[in-house]
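forwarding from the other thread:

> can someone predict this with manganese (II) ion?

sure thing
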Amino acid sequence: MRLILHHWDTDGVTSAAILVKALGLEDFTNLTAPIGEFRFDERIWDAIEKAEKLYVLDFNVPNEVERVKVPTLFIDHHTQPKIENPLVEQVNPSLEGRHYPSCSLVVSEHFGLFNAWTALGAVGDIGERAFELEWVDRLLKQERLSREEALRLVELIDSNYIAMDREGVEEAVRVLLSHPLKKLLEYEPWVKKAEAIRDAIEGAVSNAGERNGFAIVHFESPFNIISKVARKLVWEMGYKGAVVVNEDFHGKAQIYFRISGEEAGRINMAEVIERVRALGTNAGGKREVLGCVCGRDKIEDVLAIIEEYLR
Ligand SMILES: [Mn+2]
């Protein structure tokens, strides 16, 4: 059995479809990891045991790949160490200091098969900036896809993982292989998921309260939309920052704190992250962002810290 493990996003799904088509695989299994977790779970390790050949695409898990005991082709574009496992052929231009916008392009170059899937992988990973790349434009034109249609297809394919639908992500590879892209613009399971996600984002944003120019939003949703809600509030609606709380994300709490570039000169986010982490939460982020997953009983404590910085 040929086993393909791929990232859950559009770049991972298109990379898998390109590989299947390039190799003319009739009989294959494709799996993705538990969404949001960069590791192989038991389901994946069980499948690897039955596999005669493994492909790992756009999924940056060098430590897991070091442990596999079957011949493996590991294609990626993320920065990662050189793999020592002799069973693994690692194809990654970043090892030679060359940065690729998507794994789909690495897969296409490796097999010499380029189509609109290659372009969609790049649109998925770097957004509208992909349209500045000559080859993206050319491959989309060849399939008579406009930029808007390409962005919409990425939204539709990504709706599977944003809805935390692991099975949906895995099915997406066969859906791509069996439909022309134009038809997929109306593929109902994806259109419905994308619609539900848009509604959930709109609903959260429209419930925003305000304090000292910062938006404060509480909602409950099984969708992983918290970063999109915060971006919308700060980038599109002009708040100085946003405190967003998903009070029930599969039984846990998600808390997200995003500030504008201007506020980042005033608020020491590294310090906020440090203090939130000291509560025993799983927190991380960068200069303008704090993201945190914790027990629902910790919400009040985390918010108490964040509120000290909203003055
Ligand atoms: Mn990628």
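The chain has two domains: 2-186, 206-307. thats all i got for now
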